[in-house]
Design a protein that fits this description.
Blueprint (H helix, E strand, L loop, with lengths): L21 H12 L9 H4 L13 H6 L7 H4 L1 H24 L1 H25 L2 H21 L2 H7 L4 H30 L8 H22 L30 H4 L3 H32 L15 H36 L1 H24 L3 H30 L4 H8 L1 H23 L9 H20 L11 H10 L6 H7 L10 H26 L5
Amino acid sequence: MSLDILSKDRTVAGSGFNRWLVPPAALAIHLCIGMAYGFSVFWLPLSKSVGMACPVDMSLWSELFTTSCDWKVSSLGWMFTMFFVFLGSSAALFGGWLEHAGPRKAGVVAALCWSGGLVISAYGVFVHQLWMLWLGSGFIGGIGLGLGYISPVSTLVKWFPDRRGMATGMAIMGFGGGAMIGSPLAVILMNSFSAGPGNPGVWQTFLVMGLGYFVFMLGGSFGYRVPTTDWKPEGWIPPAPSTKAMITQRHVHVSVAWKTPQFWLIWMVLTMNVSAGIGIIGMSSPMLQEIFAGKLIGLQLGFNELSLDQKKAIAVIAGGFTGLLSLFNIAGRFIWASLSDWIGRKNTYYVFFLLGIGLYSSATTLGHTGNLALFVLGFCIILSMYGGGFATVPAYLADMFGTQMVGAIHGRLLTAWSTAGILGPVVVNYIREANLAAGVPRDQLYDKTMSYLVGMLVIGLICNFLIRPVADKYFMTDAELETEKRLAHERASAAASELSGVVVSSSKSSPVTLWWAWLAVGIPLAWGVSITLDKAWVLFR
């Protein structure tokens, strides 16, 4: 295969291309890389792969290279942190390259990194070398996460100028849904490959999933098409600048965007929204168990008063709670982002922060009064806004900085995710541990935590209020914009592209192709949703 087929010139869509083929291509990639959220299913099997615990005083450095004892779960958990640190840093570093190289090339590189990282990790498990897991999935896979995550953003906002929020929400929904598919699939594969103690079937599972993800992501990458510069939806008229001041028709270069106050205000908005949500995701299961304890199974007993069997019973219910939160995280990405097309991006974030402040503030009261249904509902809404924040922010950036380099700008903004991935869990976990050490009852461990999370949302609310339209001095001139379009290999019109012979196909997209594309991503997603709902049902029995 000639590498020329990966060039952006070869992805310019013909006049008959159906734009609804692009979201399933993006979903195909996001559903694969979204497994990063579900990697915790591997921790326990990997921590028992040898059958002999490492000495308590063994350093982390020694643990990276040992072949004679089991790795600690905490050491394996560093891979989760590495995922999001390298996701944000690689998205920031390679975002500008992506705008020029195009989504297909970026998607193929993401597939090689994410899937290749899993194959390296498979070999690392086989030879029992922890450093290879960190290198394979953590570092190389993390780069694949960043490239795969931002690969469709710029393309989607250009294909859907009339529905920016809905389009990006549809694709980014896949990142939240990846764990719903990947986690149960990984469990099924590990159970199939397991050969007793010392061989939990993890390396075989990594290998099979890595190869499967590569095929799926490759299909998504080759499904990408970019519109011509002058393309717009039939019958759609761009809004006049004076009627929607927060939506610009001009463009800011990525090298300039990060120098504007608007960039850093949106950066803080995303950081605060994500920090509050991600801290809860990491502690959702123990939080429900410690606050409600015996009430989950109809007993008026505190957590420490429960027997081992009773603790196992409430752990199953807490697992259903975690699954339900994941489902709302996914649904929120599509619903809130679509809603933002109607009420505006700034108003959507106002809802996130104001509603979040009310829900976090009332969570303590709901927990102490034992109102399980409202407590669960409140956190489901909170997690929907966590996902909605991710899905709405690309459209927010396109409104503020234009669509020309929104993918690159979004990549730099994702450093907010890396920051939140450390800030949120550290705040929640540290406060919990401090309260435990101080002898605070388990059902009151999270009272102070909620007040800190409310404080984060207040900061985000203030930053969102301060966002104003970008000043004229930051926008590209007409000459600078034309230069950027040449670097990005853009075509002036569909007719010109077809005459140059670079369009893959100018014929009308087949309805059969459209159906197959959506079924290819819809069936796995429906399977994951059904499994999640089945697990969550224990909350209502």
